[in-house]
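Minutes, project huddle
Topic: does the predicted pose make sense with iron/sulfur cluster bound?
PN asked that the exact inputs be recorded in the minutes so nobody has to dig through chat later. Recorded below.
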Amino acid sequence: MKLPKLRELKEALTAVFSRRYTSRFPFRDSPAPEGFRGKPLPDDQWCIGCEACAQACPSDAIVIEDRKKEAVRTITRYWDRCNYCGQCEEKCPQPHPGVKLSREYDFSGYTPDEMNIKQEFELVVCSKCAGPVGTLKQLEAVSGRIGPALASSSPDMLLARQIQIKRQMPGKAKRKEITRSDIFTFLCPVCRHEVYRKEAGN
Ligand code: SF4
Ligand code: SF4
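Predicted holo structure (tokens), as shared on screen:
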């Protein structure tokens, strides 16, 4: 019985006179190691608001809201729902990911609003049904990537490249009928199909 007690005493004395084992966080920064998967942070230079990451997210931590009347898309990334799987970064179609898992792990805050980050994008809406076509940044990025020759085969891409010439303005009223001239307006795939079908006399 005596021996274990002496051993415990020795351990206690060693602990008192040795250096601290734990970091001084939060009083001092304690950087996470390389490769740590923390807060996903968007990169506005590369994120085009395409929503691919939201579709890949298994935790519904990325919420897309399209306000069609104002032609605005909001992307909210909720850190308190995130499981740090990295799918958003991996599935981003951009050459440099539009969102990256950072080495940040300090999530303390006083309100739920401090647990998320929001981005806003200009939304292109269909000139007939007002459905979302995509963000303007997305159309520009895709048309830039496929090049002018291929982009000119898609009126939406062409318009995105020549946005200063013609553009679907926010809040524009929906129209019931579409005509041949509507080919060179922003249309969602369903309405564009309707224009071409009418054009072919079907
Ligand atoms: S997939 Fe990439 S570019 Fe698209 S919304 Fe997500 S982060 Fe942005
Ligand atoms: S790391 Fe995973 S859970 Fe978190 S936002 Fe990205 S995809 Fe969703």
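Observations noted during the meeting:
- The helical segments are 2-17, 52-56, 87-91, 136-151, 155-161, 189-199.
- The chain has a mean pLDDT of 85.
No decisions taken; revisit at the next huddle.
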